[in-house]
Design goal:
443 residues, alpha/beta, Amidase signature (AS) enzymes, 2 domains, catalytic activity
Amino acid sequence: MQDWLKMTAADLGRGIGAGEIDPVALTKCYLEAIDAHPLRDRIYTEVTHERALAEAEAAAERARMDLRRSPLDGVPISWKDLFDSAGTGTEAGSDLLKGRVPDQDARVLANATAMGTVCLGKTHMSELAFSGLGLNPVKETPPCVNDEGAAPGGSSSGAAASVAFGLAACGIGSDTGGSVRIPSAWNNLVGLKTTAGRISLEGVVPLCLKFDTVGPLARSVEDAGLMLGLLEGTKGPDLRNPPSLQGRRFADLRTVARDDLEPEVAAAHVECLGKLKAAGAEIVPLEVPELQDAMDLSGILYTTEAYGLWKDVIEASPDLMFAEILERFRAGGQHSGPDYVAAWAKLEQCRMVWDQAVAGFDAVLTPSCPILPPNMAQLQSDHDYYVRANLLTLRNTRIGNLMGLCALSLPTSKPSCGLQLLGQPDCEEALLRIGASVEAALC
């Protein structure tokens, strides 16, 4: 049974479908592993034992009657603590929301439950999802699977840890500037950022509604594809036989994305490009100078909306917040309405230039993150180190959010070094298919 804790969600689902795995036994295996884990309370905010077992029993009955609702019917997954769950605390990593208990599930949780997944519980996160580092002194900071003293990546930090430490078959997180892809990269997982507006945000605690997205942190591209479907209430794409990379064209983005790479990250990226070339892919260097203009707008675009949504709640009890997160929110109060509108107009122009520059490529490639996970102790004691690390951490992933794209982060042979694939808006299925091929080439 311990092997179950390492299997992909898709393989667990196939085992259930073949009658080789009982959903109740599988769920008990995960619950027992969670309860026995020494880092449980740093990963999960709450474990929903009763709900999980009830859903597992229903899945087992459906399996016996050959009425399974999806390929992942009966598979246990975790949920970031900003997805409303009926009767279970949902505090988004912040004491500003302490004691908040929703009376109904978020739409995506309801969809996934209706398709048969088992909810194991809620996972820790960066405060109000406003940091890519995953450090949360207010609640708990989940561990990084590769370095006990390093930040885990955020804001979906607990979601990543739950999968990386074998305490969930898949984790569901959110991504506003990189919050699925960064913890996935730093914990050797696959992370899918969906296109803004594709997946429902109903019942999801917001940060920046124009950029907020929902996505899975998983052990394989296939798992990510299946979870994409379940979040929408469908079965998802079939990725079992990925196409050849022969003749595929990838852009190797040089603008912004290659600046200030740590040596390990640079080496991992070069190795990945070499493997793709060996598999028959064409790699084309790409410069998009206008991208820097878009990056320069991100401060006003993110902080203005975030502070606009949270200003009244924050200023009623600012002492409840981690100082670094509070400062980042308050930066949004420095910008005017006309400046914000002008920034969005300029961003739309940059997006049109981007679309023209990347036409004809199967995906645009970048390192998922330019740096390795930074030291947690120094993050808490050195303000300048924290600010620089947070901005660098989210830099490459933020390209996907600013350009309105879907994106995928894949693990590489180097721990905590991910390869990011940027796709076209609303083309997740195509990105996942090419991502499955890239995944196979990187193995």
